[in-house]
Amino acid sequence: MTNAQTASADEAVGALPLVGHWIDGAPRAVAGGRTAPVFNPATGRATAEVALADGDDVAAALASAQRGFEVWSGHSIAKRQQVLFAFRELLSSRRQELAAIITAEHGKVLSDAAGEIARGLEVVDLACGFPTLTKGGYSENASTGVDVYTIRQPLGVTAIISPFNFPAMVPLWFFPIALAVGNSVILKPSEKDPSAALWMARLWQEAGLPDGAFTVLQGDKTAVDGLLQAAAVQSVSFVGSTPIAQYIYEEASRTGKRVQALGGAKNHMLVLPDADLDLVADQAINAGYGAAGERCMAVSVVLAVDTIADALSEKIQDRIARLRVGDGAGTDAGEPDMGPLISAAHREKVSGYVDIAEADGADVVVDGRGLSVDGLEDGFWFGPTLLDRVPTDSQAYTDEIFGPVLSIVRVRSYQEGVDLINSGRFGNGTAIFTNDGGAARRFQSEVQVGMIGINVPIPVPVAYHSFGGWKSSLFGSAKAYGAHGFDFFTREKAVTARWLDPATHGGIDLGFPQN
Ligand code: NAD
């Protein structure tokens, strides 16, 4: 158990601290309810128990969030902006505390945990400017004596359901904007790493957010379904795997909610023969094995044009040999490059995909199965793995593996590479590596993917552009943050106003109003 974890727990289950809900500006007592273990993936040991909400917890969260909305939406723009700036300063100055919590429950290395907080902070920065971004428009004298203007209002209670792989950044894609414009938020984090959400709830309170405006509801499907069925919940922002994203999209739509549901990915990088292969190999390593491949924008397939495939494979192998895998919290020897996977079950799944690739005829060039780390033998380790000549009808190619497994697929041409990318069911991110501007420009136009990198392997857009994929990587039309975020979390009204006076009102006329 780490100090970071005990800092967010208020009760205990047996010998382990309990990570509970945050409702009405306080931890909610949950003695006797369902719980699930939370592990430190580097040691393989349970460090806490997380509460799993039941119907009463959901009802308490909803009632508090409705009250929170009434209070918070009544705050002036100036007051809301002050709270946002205060939260921004607190998060910025105390980010190392949060990074330690993330590493202890997720396993990613500390610098990577700090990186996800930095990217989340970008959205807080953006949200601080909400008065400019939501002030609407005014058209004086649209018709004689008639003015037309738009105003944006908050939705009410909004729900965020987030995945395990970015316990801070993904919620931060949504809640700074949702709150800035006056909504209340119920965050249902992943039960695998629940403490970051609780830590951020306390930070909001310190920043001056009224109780009930930010709620954390811990749990599993019961909590999610409770939110989906609740009439009070006006919108759902989901990030996770594709089957659950589709379920959320369908259920939330059925109950009349606004919904954005971001799903899984299988991201390809296409390498053309003119690219600098040393730089490409570095980028493939960073994007393939960073966070042990547990990123929705990880590169999992390298499409190498035949003429350079052998040379590129060798350069990637050289670099894999130098990667250090270990406890993300670091040791006396410093920080490793890569931490463990999230759970033993997930390690089995990743391992199973390498078995499938092998059985389907792929070359297992570097095999991470069976890796162990000295002194941490029970950790959920899986070493960087390189597959070559992966058949494109193998499930190891078509499915998202979500682990440190990089597959090389050899293509004869640029066109064959683009056709392969476009034939996939996902469309989250992709990248091309080339010095040929014409090829890059053609790629950005022809590829059917939502986020594209040109010599950039993980093209996560900055906060003032929006994040989201195509096809099975995003259900719904609203992406995360940027202009999409402000549109998603507000409802627009258009007001047409005339102050009656005898000279312009026109008398009785049953025709349709015209200018
Ligand atoms: P997941 O789908 O298992 O879980 C996501 C959330 O849904 C969690 O809060 C979980 O408690 C809840 N959930 C799980 N099963 C549910 C069910 N049957 N009914 C209702 N709710 C349920 O995803 P994960 O394993 O936590 O995260 C990894 C996945 O998320 C990967 O597929 C990854 O690509 C994806 N992801 C996508 C993006 C993106 O931007 N597109 C970003 C991050 C992660």
TrEMBL record:
Broad enzyme group: oxidoreductase
Domain of life of the organism encoding this protein: Bacteria
EC number: 1.2.1.27
InterPro entries, per database record: Ald_DH/histidinol_DH, Ald_DH_C, Ald_DH_CS_CYS, Ald_DH_N, Aldehyde_DH_dom, MeMal-semiAld_DH
PROSITE patterns: ALDEHYDE_DEHYDR_CYS
Record keywords: NAD, Oxidoreductase
Domain Aldehyde dehydrogenase, first and last residues per copy: 34-495
Pfam families associated with the record: Aldedh
UniProt xrefs under PANTHER family: MALONATE-SEMIALDEHYDE DEHYDROGENASE (PTHR43866:SF4)
Entry protein name: methylmalonate-semialdehyde dehydrogenase (CoA acylating)
Organism from which the protein derives: Microbacterium soli
